[in-house]
Design a protein that fits this description.
single chain, mainly alpha, YutG-like, 9 helices, 67% helix, globular
Length: 169
């Protein structure tokens, strides 16, 4: 077993964490553009002049927040471990089958949505139920386990929607 030595001088690895998340999202065909399209669709009624580039920039900026990176990375790792069959039972079966009463995936996502205030939290709930755009693609993908990913992406989109609503209100 590996011996763990705590480095009390270690700085948070922001760039490495962001790059890890972007790499994992891209490996799962989840792009800033795909997420930005859901943002545009959700906000067109309120922000008719919002551009795809503005939505993508806001997504990238939001993904740099440490707390969001932490939740994203944990969810990505859980999905990856479940895809490889590396979780202990009964957790493996629960995550692999995305059992409705599990709720931990939604809990991580709600943690993200709180960064966008009440707008983001309510929008996340709606996106979780209606699975629009890339969220639906993730949910329907049977090539791997995406129990956490659809919720995390929905929450990230909801935070950006809330952020933009406050920015342009």
């Amino acid at each position: 077993m590996k011996e763990f030595i705590k480095d009390k001088e270690m700085n948070y690895p922001d760039t490495k964490m962001f790059n890890y998340i972007m790499s994992e999202l891209n490996a799962r065909n989840v792009t800033l553009e795909g997420m930005a399209k859901v943002v545009l669709e959700g906000q067109k009624r309120f922000l008719p002049n919002l551009t795809l580039k503005e939505a993508m920039d806001s997504l990238e900026d939001t993904l740099h927040k440490r707390e969001i990176m932490n939740n994203m990375s944990i969810g990505l790792v859980m999905d990856d471990m479940a895809t490889k069959g590396n979780l202990p039972e009964p957790l493996q079966s629960i995550v692999e089958n995305d059992l409705g009463v599990f709720g931990t995936d939604e809990t991580l996502a709600l943690g993200i949505s709180l960064f966008g205030g009440s707008i983001a939290t309510t929008n996340y709930g709606s996106l979780d139920v209606h699975k629009k755009g890339i969220i639906n693609d993730i949910d329907k993908d049977t090539s791997r386990v995406n129990t956490f990913l659809d919720d995390l992406v929905g929450a990230l989109i909801a935070v950006v929607e809330g952020k933009l609503a406050h920015q342009y209100a």
